[in-house]
Amino acid sequence: MAYIIDKEKCVNCGYCEFVCPFSAISALDDYYTIDENKCVNCAQCFDACINCAISPGIGVKRIQKVEIISENCIGCSLCKRFCPANAVEGVIKQPFTIIQEKCIKCGVCFSKCKKDAVLVVYR
Hints:
Layout: E1 3-5, H1 15-19, E2 25-28, E3 31-34, H2 44-48, E4 54-56, E5 63-68, H3 78-82, E6 88-89, E7 97-98, H4 108-112, E8 118-122
Antiparallel strand pairs: 1-4, 2-3, 5-8, 6-7
């Protein structure tokens, strides 16, 4: 389940669409909607909504922290290549790291890692 936009609270400013790194939000007639197939529950829209019109859907867990376990990382760079925030740094064949200040906590690195090297902590 993705985040939900309350049509009654939404003021149609479009900022949620602007901040969504996955293009999961779009205007539909006179309100905005979230495409559940594109939404990865990163909560960028939730944090940015000026009118508190966005809320997590039932069962949505919010990521608190993402980090790479260096002992498991083989340096393949999949996490870096798919990170929409450019928050992963490193050199091929050496363990990569996540720059916490840049990380938007979307979990894409976790979904792409084939070696269980990404640890996700949920709230």
